[in-house]
Amino acid sequence: MKAYKFFSVDERMERHNDLAAILPLGFGATRARFKNAVITTTQIDHPVNIHYQRMVLTRVLPAFLYQQFGLDVTMPQHAGDTSKWRRWSNLVDQLTPLTEGEDPTPLLLSKTDITAVLKEYGLLTKQSSWRDFTGLTDDNQQMAGVILDNMTSTLDSLTRDTLDGGASTTTAANGTPTGTFLNKTDIDTVVTNLEGQNSMKFKPTIAATVKISTSPIRAAYVAIGHTDQRPRLEAVSGFKHVSSYSDQGPIMDHEFGSTGDVRWLLTTKAPKDTSSPVLYSNIIMAKEFFGNVKIKGETADGPLVFTPADRTGSGLRRYSLLGWIRNSATRILNDNFGHNLKASISA
C-alpha cells in the first residue's frame, strides 16, 4: 500500500511560498486581483445586526412617602361607599367635692364623626394580539411593573393632595436672611402646637452610643418636604444629618435628617406652588393625622387586571387588556395632629 505523507502547517506554508516563487508573473498578478475581492458587510449585510439587552435601563421613580403615615383601615364589601370614624371628646375633670346625699349633675358626652367617600381609580392599556404573538415575553412582565408603579404613585399623590389642600397652613416668617426660609423658630412653633394637643410621635428616641461624632435623636414627629430644600434644611439651627445618628438601624427610607423633634423625609413629589418666590409645602405630622381606607377584596387586594384576547369581546381576538383598578379614600382625621409649613428656597 502506498504511504501518504501528511505535512504540518509550517511545512505546507513553506511549500506554498516555494511554489509561488517559481510561478510566472502573470499568476501572481491574478492572485493579487483575487486578494482585493473581499466580501464585506456592505455587499452582504448580517441578517440580524442588533442584540437586544434584556436587562432594561433604570426607570427613575420619585419616593412615595405620604400614604405610609396614615391610619390604614378597610371596609367589607356590600357595606356602602362611605367610611366613618368617630372620636369621643374628653370629659372635664370633676374637681368639686360631691354634696352629701346628692348625686352630681349628669353630664352629656360629645363626639365627632368624620366620613370619607371612596372612589375608584385606574388605568387601562390595550395590546394587539399580533404584538403579543411576535414580541418578546419579557416586555409583558416589564409593562406590568410600570403599570403597578403608576398605581402606587397615583395613590400616593391622592394622599399628598388631600394633606396639602386640607391641613392648616402657615408660611415661615423667621428665616435668615429671608423670613420665608425654613428655620428653627417656625418649626418649633409647629412642634409646640402638636405637643399642646398631646399628639403621638411616630418615632422613638435613638439612644446615644459610644460611636465617635454621632448624636442621640429625640423621639420625633415626621415631616415630608421637597428635595429642593436640602440646603435650607441643613442650614436650620441644630440640624443633624442621618449620617450622624448614633444608630443607623432605625433610619427611614429617604430620611434626610432631623431638627429637634422632627425627622425629615424628602421627595420630588412634595408640592410647590407657582408663586414668586416658590413656596414649598412641608407636612409636619403626628400619628392619626389622616387615614386611608379601602374596601377589601377584589380590586383592593388584586389591583392588576389582565383580560386575555378571548375575553375582551373582540370577535377575532385582536387585542388583550392590562391595567389596574383600586378603590381608595384619604381623609384628615384630626387637623390638630398635623400642619403644613410653607417655605421658600430663594428670596
Characterise this structure:
- With 347 residues, this protein is α+β, with helices and mostly antiparallel strands.
- The protein has a single domain (53-89, 110-347), classed as Alpha-Beta Complex (phage-related protein like fold).
- The chain has 6 helices and 14 strands.
- The chain has helices at 9-22, 25-35, 129-134, 137-166, 184-196, 230-234, and strands at 71-75, 82-88, 111-117, 119-128, 169-171, 221-226, 240-241, 255-259, 262-267, 280-285, 290-295, 304-307, 319-332, 338-343.
- A 7-stranded mixed sheet has the order 5-14-10-6-9-8-7, with helices on one face. Strands 1, 4, 11, 12 and 13 form a 5-stranded mixed sheet that branches. The chain has a two-stranded antiparallel sheet with strand order 2-3.
- The longest helix has 30 residues, at 137-166.
- The mean pLDDT is 88.
Structure at a glance:
With 347 residues, this protein is α+β, with helices and mostly antiparallel strands.
Tags for this model:
347 residues; alpha+beta; phage-related protein like fold; seven-stranded mixed β-sheet; five-stranded mixed β-sheet; 6 helices; 14 strands
Summarize the topology.
Layout: H1 9-22, H2 25-35, E1 71-75, E2 82-88, E3 111-117, E4 119-128, H3 129-134, H4 137-166, E5 169-171, H5 184-196, E6 221-226, H6 230-234, E7 240-241, E8 255-259, E9 262-267, E10 280-285, E11 290-295, E12 304-307, E13 319-332, E14 338-343
Parallel strand pairs: 1-11, 5-14, 6-9
Antiparallel strand pairs: 2-3, 4-13, 6-10, 7-8, 8-9, 10-14, 11-13, 12-13
